[in-house]
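Are you able to produce any protein sequence you like plus the matching backbone structure tokens because I've never seen that pairing?
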Amino acid sequence: MKNLRPVMRLLPLALAAMLGLPAHAQSITELYQAARTNDAAFQSVRAQYEAAIQRAAQARAGLLPQVGLQGTASQTRFDSSVTGSRGFSTQSAAVTATQPLYRPANAANFRQGQRSVEQFRAVMEAASQDLVIRLSQAYFDVLAAQDALTFVRAQKSAVSEQLASAKRNFEVGTATITDSREAQARFDLSTAQEIAAENDLRVRTLALETLVGRTGVKPLPLSAPVTIAPPQPEDVEAWVRLAEEASPSIHQARQALEVARLETEKARAGHLPTVDLNGSYSHNRSPDGSTTTAVGSRSNVLQLGVTLNVPLFAGFATQNRIRETLALEDRAQADLDNARRTVTQATRAAYFGVVSGAGQVRALEAAEASSQLALDANRLGYQVGVRINIDVLNAQSQLFQTKRDLAQARYNVLLGQLRMRQANGTLTPQDLNFLDAMLAR
């Protein structure tokens, strides 16, 4: 039986050949830029953010002058027993303007618009972080599926060699037919696993292509060896403290509370007077006279004034509106408290997940080495007659399963580091650069 170590050494080459690492293979940063342009969910949030900016601009209108232009022209036929019948025309044009001087509700509405923009900016930031995670997850899913297919094919090749050895030993009388049948069963199982792995790779690749809006996507694999660095800083409370200022969820809830408070201010403004400055300029012309005179006339009128409006009673609508907005303030405060607790819990869970995952990677690396030694020992025992074929086949399965678990664990830790930053709100697209540095070029 041939030694499997040369096969193991050829696995990276086989993976590279299967991936096809030509110049058009894409890094995770390159695919992220494509996803920002083509992902429908991200574009939807971006459109909402743009709409919020325009709504804030609309709120400013309540503080600015309102100017209007009006013009009229009329023709009149006048019949009188004294003056007889005659016709005359009238033309007029007027410009009116109103400047709010004291409208507390409009001022609160304007500040609400600014807070809403900040609120949707936090939503936009959360969507950007979510896109980083979704893209990274899809990217690693494809790499994991490629690894699984490579390992299954390598296992199938090793089982094929074991099957050929069992058949030769049976022909010369040094092994029973059971060894051949066990090897054949394991070979058939590897074939079925290969078919499943090929389909899983197609599905994972399709999901990544859908996310980035491209076809023919070929992610770059991780270079070997992979070094998993611990979280920096190595203090979970330090990560939690960063969340108060950095987390988009907390920032969004904080701005929602400010919007609710301003809504109460608007409601209380229902008890307050309003003051407006009004002005108008009009030009009137009657070239053929009017109903009282046959002499043409024209006039110019300039008017300036201040309008005071004092609300006296509105059927308790204002009082009830204030009570409603105060209740909504309480709800917004509760939402903010819940956002803080949720972010804190998610940050701690993500941090401990990364630490645990890094420990799992180290354990699986040791298990990989042990599994290789166990396979070598079983193979040697089979050659000298103290082990049977099923022992070698089980050792092979254990080795390849460990390799698959190790590859998946590495991807999980790398993704977990991104999720940890997302949990406390410090994740940025630039954090993908450290993943790019780990890719094979």
Summary: The domain at 5-61+106-271+338-436 is CATH 1.20.1600.10 (Outer membrane efflux proteins (OEP)). Residues 1-23 have pLDDT under 50 and may be disordered. Residues 104-171 form the longest helix (68 residues). The chain is about 65% helix and 15% strand.
